[in-house]
Design a protein that fits this description.
The chain has 525 residues and is α/β, with parallel strands linked by helices. The chain folds into three domains: 42 residues, no CATH class; 245 residues, pyruvate-formate lyase- activating enzyme; 153 residues, Endonuclease - Pi-scei, Chain A, domain 1, CATH 2.170.16.10. The chain has twelve helices and 26 strands. The strands form eight sheets. A seven-stranded mixed sheet has the order 4-5-18-19-20-21-22. Strand 10 and strand 11 form a beta hairpin. Helix 3 packs parallel to helix 5 and helix 9 crosses helix 12. It is globular and about 65 Å long.
């Protein structure tokens, strides 16, 4: 594992209470690629986690390579920023999609060259804006955390506001790239492999704080950079269980991420034990295994390979488009063990999604990942979870969501209403007060009796969405005799460790777990 410009944490356990429980802590790392996030690298003693029966979860075993989630974004640009595509065209950042071929750069240690690369992921966020003006007239609007390549390495647009020392741009700093004139004269056929040199006047003339926050976009590429408005730009790479470590479930969940760096090696030893019954293992049940940090740590390939070698069925639930990286491996291991994949896509309104999930890939990017999964020859279910009362439970929103899932190739849909478990409820209500204060009284009443929406609401929601799911052909997946259930479901949700079938449907039709008689066919909503 290599971190550029890493800083080892020096916090005493008393400074961060959660560290006191990490007696297997190797080091704490901060890195410019993840501004504001500290990664606590630990040596895991075990990888497989047995899910307590009293939890009522519809799976028996799980693996969580991360605690916390780095999906929150930092580096971002104005959506209208022009991105240089691999064929020499320019396209606004807001129109760049996962899978697009664009131009990036690679360094051999002495020289840097232009190369074609692929967009691996895209995020929307909301950040304070700064306008950067160069001597040749180029203007770029970016966040203060964004970095550009200069003659002295990568530098941030603006100095840190939290006291952290980091290199940042000043007037007269020269940026690397083509410049506006270079883009005009560009011959794409001769660009790939050429050295990054330019006579353009790319010195910084001014850096203006626009004094407001705007919608911005981040992307991840194969080379770690891209060409934005003619200059070389660095790209982006992102609760309750955190309270076990005495971290809070809000900011700490985003900013204090525990990484089990040896999880694949530990798992490989666990699954070859004679006592291991090759029970289905669910990944993504607690924190996202394909969060942004996975792009750095690459823990999932080793986990997938260890499970496959032992003959253990696996299922993966994720919001992360980084799943696409491992699709060739997943398609290969699916020849020998059952593999089930699901994308979590709860919100199909772009503005609402940016507000409540600012560090996650857009619905469009996740739907494109569903299509990529299907193109790889695998089924992909979509978790329409959670449905937000008064926000995403309208018939129009649900119908549009299901239409888009079907068009993307989704094989089935599971749904549930919002569940405000301890640690999440205060965070959500704070967001609601800020974004939709008119709904606070309704939510207060709706969740006055507990963490779940009332049974009456769940029944109403089931009656509304179930006919739509059937109309779009998303209520059933493919039958798979080897599992005795539905292939497009997460395998861990088909049978518990006693061999009993488990369905994701409660008596009132809303999502939940219950054990079915052996003769009853599992339902999928």
């Amino acid at each position: 594992m290599r971190w550029d410009a890493q800083q080892l944490g020096t916090e005493e356990p008393s400074a961060l209470p959660g560290l006191a429980k990490l007696n297997n802590l190797v080091r704490s790392v901060s890195t410019p690629e993840f501004a504001g996030v500290t990664f606590h690298e630990v040596l895991a003693k075990s990888a497989l986690n047995r899910v307590p029966r009293q939890s009522q979860m519809p799976f028996g075993w799980t693996i969580n390579p991360y605690r916390g989630c780095s999906h929150a974004c930092a580096y971002c640009l104005d959506p209208d920023t022009l991105i240089l595509m691999a064929d020499g065209r320019q396209k606004p950042l807001k129109s760049v999609e996962v899978g697009d071929a664009i131009m990036g750069t690679e360094s051999d240690g002495k020289y840097r060259h232009y190369v074609a690369t692929t967009v691996l992921a895209s995020w929307s966020t909301f950040k304070r804006a700064y306008r950067l003006t160069l001597a040749d007239g180029t203007e770029i609007v970016a966040s203060g955390d964004h970095r550009f390549l200069t003659e002295r390495g990568w530098k941030y647009v603006h100095r840190a506001t939290n006291g952290t020392q980091r290199p940042y741009l000043t007037t007269s700093t020269g940026l690397a790239g083509l410049g506006r004139a270079g883009l005009t004269e560009l011959e794409p056929t001769s660009m790939t492999g050429s050295e990054v040199t330019s006579d353009a006047e790319l010195q910084v003339v001014s850096i203006e704080d626009l004094g407001t926050e705007i919608d911005m976009i981040d992307i991840t590429t194969g080379t770690g950079d891209f060409i934005a408005n003619g200059v070389i730009s660095h790209n982006c790479f992102a609760r309750p269980t955190h309270t076990y470590l005495d971290f809070n479930a809000g900011d700490d969940f985003d900013n204090q991420v525990v990484v089990k760096i040896n999880v694949a090696d530990v798992l490989a030893k666990e699954v070859v034990r004679p006592s291991w019954g090759r029970y289905p293992v669910a990944l993504g049940t607690n924190t996202d295994p394909y969060q942004r940090a996975e792009g750095k740590y690459s823990l999932m390939p080793g986990i997938i390979e260890a499970l496959a070698r032992s003959g253990t069925p696996l299922s993966i639930l994720t919001k992360g488009t980084l799943l696409r990286r491992d699709l060739p491996l997943l398609a290969e291991v699916a020849r020998t063990v059952p593999v089930d994949l699901a994308m979590s896509i709860a919100i199909y309104d772009d503005e609402l999604q940016k507000s409540i999930e600012p560090g996650t890939p857009s619905a469009k990017a996740r739907l494109a990942t569903v299509t990529a999964v299907r193109n790889a020859g695998l089924d992909c279910s979509v978790f329409l979870m959670p449905i937000l009362p008064y926000l995403t439970d309208t018939k129009a929103h649900l119908d549009e969501a299901l239409r888009r899932v079907r068009e993307a190739g989704g094989t089935s849909v599971l749904f549930t209403s919002l569940y405000l478990k301890p640690g999440v409820k205060p965070w959500f209500m704070h967001w609601l007060e800020r974004q939709h204060p008119e709904l606070v009284p309704k939510y207060t009443e709706l969740y006055s009796r507990g963490q779940y929406a009332p049974k009456e609401y769940r029944k109403w929601l089931a009656d509304r969405i179930s006919p739509l799911i059937r109309a779009h052909g998303l209520e059933r997946g493919r039958e798979d005799p080897s599992t005795g259930g539905i292939r497009s479901k997460a395998l861990g949700m088909l049978r518990n460790d006693d061999g009993e079938r488990v369905a994701f449907a409660s008596d009132d039709g809303s999502t939940g777990a219950r054990i079915l008689p052996a003769t009853e066919q599992p339902m999928l909503f």
